[in-house]
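Lab channel / #folding
Pinned by the channel admin:
"Please post every new chain as: sequence first, then the structure tokens as a reply. Keep commentary short and put observations after the output so the thread stays searchable."

First post following the new format, from NK:
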Amino acid sequence: MSRKPLTRILAAIGVVVGLLATLVVLGGMSADAEANGPAPHPDYLVNIIGVDNAKTNDLDDTDRRTIFVNLEGLSRINLEESEEFQVLDGNGTDKDGATLGLLDPDVDGDGVLDGTYSVHVRALGTPGGSATISTCAEIVDLGLDGELSVKNRRSLIDPDAYCTLEQYDVNLVRNNGRPMWGNVTQELLTITFEVEITVDDVTTTERITIPLFDDRIEGEFWEYNNNGLRLVQVRFTLND
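Reply from TO:
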């Protein structure tokens, strides 16, 4: 075999290895990951750090850019409407969970994301480990007539809350190779409900996608289920 074809083969192998690096997986399908991210400089970058032991010190500091979660098992990251991106409580290892302030993604209130900002994630650190992020909330009133039956799973942390349909979970895996960004704006800023509606003994199924901080839901949070993943970065970028 000549040296030139061999070089091409090795280059192709390198591309494949790069694609098998850290993936953001949505419902079992790989996301549109971007090797260099959506913008050279984020408007706000949060590091989610998995730790072996629960934190006991006060982490209520809006200047911080880190949230600590359990290295194994469940943690709660509460979401609050804010005029700016900010970590209000960095301790996700206690029973109250961490708190992250986010801009309203649906300012005009029409039930659709405004597109004012986007959210990207990537898994970093030593290869190995995985985590799942589910967006959850309690239902106030879905605004539907008839007898309703919500088919979403209940939160593992808060039995009064429902989490988005499983295919909209964010599944992160840290493999070998170069970490890649994945766009998870829809998954982390909305909740999709599947509801059975019965009217006059006729049952139909409907799916409803609701943005964070909508009046139809309350107590929004991310349910973070960790399986040994040490570091995840979440980047919030304002769109032009």
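NK: The chain is about 10% helix and 45% strand.
TO: also worth noting, Helices lie at 3-19, 185-189.
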